[in-house]
């Protein structure tokens, strides 16, 4: 049996990385067996036990196959065994397709036989509720006892298309084409559909696994197993849920620096968690964590199965662009306009040609043709025109990639035009994607052309989106590795505050408590003093310093602004006293009369921008950090960005840069540029805080005033909710 | 020749509507000819002149065809004529495919011959610049002289698939299938590509026109011509620009109450107009007018050619849903999740089944199956399961439409399953859309099944989007007809203000001028007085009434808030004086010292919401009205809605209801619901203002304070720019 390490001479491989579980090597027992037993093999056409056996033979599996079925002597012209135990040869892997009640015995037999890996297709486990959960628990116990690894249960099998194995252990009706895509599907049905579609587009796979219930081997295990597999250059994942998001993050962050991972994640609009009290909780939709997590890992998300294929075609057949500048070459205006329309949304730009390029293009085209980008050669253009112009455009240094668009007119042979385009693109280090707006017959003929390695799209928008995904991946792959920030924090001081609240079994921290926690983590608060009486205003004001904000303190008033309970920009003792008098008069007019505990005097930061910082907890993904435009309208403005904890300094920078209101920090309306570094620093400090205390459920700092210098950046108000049982 | 009026016995038809130009009937000369001359007919295969002639014959045109070519005696086994004038029979229509330099003579000959309509395929007109513009001008003059109508020039021809005509006067290589879709394309190449694709999906067309340069017959003319055509039930438009947006609006608004219009509009991201000084101008992207206009007319916009087809399939083959509640019926969890994910974005809801429905579904399915929505029958389900469950679901009163999803497993015959689904859906008044995640061969076999009238989709998301479009169209079609609002305005008063500004050749109106214009149109302003001195504060404040807002008045200070030049909530003379002193002190500290003209005292509206109202002018579409959340952050919040002038009361209501911040008006954070009616009224008054004065270039009212009653709603600040030459 081939070992992974023996297949890759890279010295990094011989010393396994400390973060990779050594168990992953044992997946060879599943994917690289010398012999496979099919337990539940059947003679009856149309049954899974028959089709799977047939696929193994038809696919020319390079090892031995042993049908197992106590009720048959011969299956598919092969000797059949009553039990895996009665096979005299060694058995590396077993595929289990028996009824649910017979699975445990079959797997127990495999253990006794010394089988290394089992693929359980049978259903009737966790997916059917209590009875199945118990059965799955027992199944896992058997595996652990014998040290076997398992794919499934409730799956449609696995494929290893490497020439040395050529193993199709699925019941998919479509035999796969060998290639370099590793594809994992959490749904058997979608897996089959995707294998079908991949074949029709000429996309070849290296490995395939229908993951089923993932009782043992997870998607993360497979990513690790194939991380440095030289036969795999691209991962496609169809996901419905994340088993262990933190593991996925760690693994995917590393892998995406070597190979692209494309994901379709179903279940976007599932209902969110319980009602939240914080702004941050209220803003975090169900999908926000998935979106953030994938982005942080450098994983590309496809919006649909169709998008997934469009992207896979481009990545498989073409090199990555080194930048976003795309050129369009067409014989018809309409498709080029449709393509140009989507360029910006795809994160690309229309390339600007050099004058030399334009002159070369012009020479040989009709005078009515357009040699700017898009290049419109007009409707009489044939293969030679395409080939000549494509070569010229590819040589322009201002072009990172080209999309050709072709609407076959009456006079030309579309197949020969396709051949000319393919020929002109051959060997280019820049990607060329082709749109053929032709009849199905023509399109299929082009797709089946020998030796073609250009991705063919039916619609202009699809090609542009795919080119955009390639450019985005290139940026993600090559982004610098973040240094872990060194933050000076006082963990003990914060722990004391939490302990006090937890001992009183309090979920909600008082403002002063929250403030103490944040200050222990280096997030400064606006200077403030409480004045309980009119007479005490002067001393409190002197301690804080003018100008001041005055806020009424009352346990009965939650929306201070709306009852005139906030006065800003108080610059003198006189203004201060006048504001107190007005505020108290208005408070007295409220029915029922609220209890008044005095006022809070806070320093006023003129010219600062109100931002929000927050944390909420996702039941699957753990803490989510939020940055956004702050103030009372945060939910209406809806200008926020989320990331999954833990975040890096780059994540923090991207969160802020991606806000619609980012320009508020960059010198808005004549204001000086503000100290965005202090805001990003505060995000990293919050990240550290939730790393240190997992009992934090949610928190907001709102507003966090971002001023011109780090010293001008202060939190003004905050709330924090904890789980007292976790301290 | 069939007349339009004779084909439709509707009495409304016999008396032509006053808004329909009588000229439209004359399009019969183009689309319903008894005889066609092909001027430029050719013997040479692959030329347009030969392929077009061939298509006419091959398509079995029911009238006579006359080839015209001075260099040939026989073409395609038919007698050929040296000129259209040498034909002895009457000629209704002529297709012109001669070189550009011969077009004018050919069309002149047509006029002399008494031809009623010409279709000019030749290029070399407006699209090539000055020389072509002149040629097109001459061409139009000839048409007018003889009273002929023309499609083109620079187009690929027209089709009328009605059995009485069966005329394919294009050079498209794909013969069309007859059906009920009228399709107009502004691009010949896209037209050909779309005809190809339509045929592969089984979509039949009634009429097709490649519009070319639209020198004479426009898209609007064709819409009018086919408005009540009984053979046309759906319009597809591929547009690159709008010739006459106001005409389109008027026509499309009426037609969409009878037949759906689906549009792909290319050119979304074209660069916007010149830099704008108003918020409204800054917020209006290039595409905003198109998006608004199409929405106002009830036209459905497809994001891509692919979306256009998905929608067309659904509209063609299925009835409209009466509501948004969709049921999903599947044999695999994955595709159903993908579908459910897009339900909300498509404007649909997942239907909730009655208990009776669930019980009926359960009876006959595996106990592991799910009978909630989505109904997952699990992977062993066949045609009978689909048929039985589909019938049950269609009978549930809580279901408006059904999407079936089918991933063919190994044991079933996909074609027979499709047959069962088709059979169960037959005669349903609710739409059924089908997703087949199958191999291309299977999909093509299903598409070609005899008598099938269900739309087949390859991906779940496409079916959901199509169902969403149908539900949306149903709502648009059935929306109530708006009454024209009766608004009491003083046009003369506003005209005097404009005249004064125009006489001084001023573009920018002073605040007091703008205020006078708006007040003449019934938009009230906050009460205000100017106080030029500290001594004058008292009297001014008494005239306005407390509480007050004080704003510094200086021609040198444009951002008052940032220099401490705004004080709010001043409730007493003392606060007023303190605020004046503070403001003047701060102003004196500014370098260089600004000129101070005093302060403006305005009434303060506590508990009101700051909104914005605005108008900007699009070079093609004319005035655009904007509504949105107001205040200084309007551009950052980016929560605005646009409509093209003129707007209806429903448009105004939709503009407000569609804002993210609409809830700010509905009792936000304990505040009482605000008087949104007064805000909508103000929008309609602005609409009237721009109707009355076309010299208004742009304007903002920001903020417009929306309070609890109409009397509490006032404009606070405004700016207006005019074109002085237009008054």
Structure description:
The structure is a homodimer of 727-residue chains. Chain A is α/β, with parallel strands linked by helices and 727 residues long. Chain A folds into 4 domains: 4-240, Rossmann fold; 311-478, Succinyl-CoA synthetase domains (Rossmann fold), CATH 3.40.50; 527-604, Dna Ligase, domain 1; 609-726, D-amino Acid Aminotransferase, Chain A, domain 1 (2-Layer Sandwich). Chain A contains 25 helices and 30 strands. Chain A has a 7-stranded mixed β-sheet with strand order 9-8-11-10-12-13-14, with helices on both faces. In chain A, helix 4 (48-58) links the parallel strand 1 and strand 2. The longest helix of chain A has 19 residues, at 460-478. Chain A is flat and about 100 Å long. Residues 1-24 and 269-276 of chain A have low confidence and may be disordered.
